[in-house]
Amino acid sequence: MNDRTLEALGLSEAPREHPLVYPGAWPEESGLLHQNRLLRLRAQPNRRLAKWMVEQPPGGFRESRPDSGPVPLNYALMGANQTLVGDRFPVISIGSNACPAQLRHKMEGLGVSSTIPMVKARVTGIGIGVSAYVSPLGYISSSPFHAPGLTQDLFITWLDAAQLDIVDASEGISDPDGEYDRVLLPPDDFPMELASGELLGGAYLYVHRYGVIHDGSGAPRPHPGERQLLADLLSESRQLREWFGDTPEEFSSRARGNDQLCEKGTRLFTDEGRTTDSGLRQYVTDEPARTVYDDIHPANSLPSGAYHTGRTPDSFDQRGAGVVRLSRAVSTALGDPQFAIVQNAQIPAARHERLGALATVIVAGDIPAQETRRVEVDHSLRVGVGLEPGEAVTVRGAHLPRTRRRWQETFFGDVNYVTCRVQDGDRASAEQEVCLLDTLTLELIGISSGDEVVLEGFPGDDGLVPVLQLKAIRTSDEVQERRKELHGGDMTSRYPSSLDALGTFPDLPWVFLDRRLWSGLGLDGQWLATVRIRCSRSYQLKKELREMVFLLGIAFIGVVTVLKSVVWQAASVAVLVLLVGFVVNVRLRGRLNQRAKRIGPRRR
Asked: Rounded to two decimals, what is the model's pTM?
């Protein structure tokens, strides 16, 4: 079916407007709820949700680029200007929150976006019972109970912070007299498997405070649908019929908007001994957790030699380089390297089996010393190899030839790197031992067109990283646009796209290199390879000194002319040399280091 509107799919009735259809119509498959459509969402084997492919609405997600084919979910959310998957909260829905129309009604009624990924999952340990609560909305809602061994398909909605707050409020979790608490279910007790094969490391669930209605034997009563449920409950209780009428229609009509009557009905369930515990209250905490999907790592076993990918803290000072942060135990196992190659363990071994990104290694004190399952990978490196937080990454040590000396660090400050995606050289620069970079990348490195840069490539079996020093030339807009028109497709294409092949958008900056330089950097056979680029500090020093030597010569002539004493001449020249050195140092540090200066409050 090409028409993905809620009306065409039979998903347009919200239980809030039509109480007797509760819990509302559920979709048949996973999808992205966007505006008034439920767009198909297809799993990608062994990849996290951000990499799943979603069909686009008419006109696409981005007006400036109306693509028609499926795109990665994160690309779709970015194009729609919505929160990305990793910053959302996975919430299991066992009632009307799995009804797209109900979700849309809740969100749009309060001016919040209703763009929500809805993913069907195989969940074990959760049954759908009947809450011991009469809702003023005119129905008795579903409520979960612990059902060990029971496996069924349930929907998990990925809510952003604003959407979660709305659902929390609708469930009354912040109200002392509210109906629900939100809990984070552990994967050991409640296995949750997505179609991609991912075993969720946890998901949220709303647990009723009043318990659930039992079936007469003490076991939780299943929810058969609202009409059938109300008919059965009314037939079983004379008092309930006196207050709410004889039919489901009368019950819904009398309950709707009547808080006092609903409270009486809720107390009646307890007075008549109809309630039982859901078995889920043990998971309630004092404050509901707010851990996002990117920080809930899968429960799948890791491939041999791999680690879960974590995010580096926002407050961490990377000092101008892509980093991998790891524990003391992992560093020791790798041989305490200063540098490492990170690689995506999800990518199958093919033409791109050596795709990786060079990182600076940081042994992080805030990571437990014996942590051996997780390493933190910087965002630029994750983009470089198409990694999502939580996915499996391999790390192996690497080392650089001694191209820098300690005095350079003291004189120039920290090295400033930019990680770039390697593109096949443009015809204008073919067979030239230069690289082409865009204006922004040149400025980030701190150089001008024609200056020399140092490129660090991919290490061989010995772990030694090949390094080349060559001129960087500013690429033209024409070259960039021509390549954008040509690139696309997976790793088998001549100019593969990071979006198509790795699910990554936007991409790293591009560097154009002749194929001979690819070989010199150890990149043979690598499509979408990355290199680290920094300025050549020795070249910058020579460049500065060339400018200053002329001024020093003029100053020397002036000193010799004015001062007759050889001692004073020598002293003055020494001062001039020191002054030139100081000026060169200040100029180079100011241009080559992209460091923010923290300005504190003025002290009195």
From this structure: 0.87
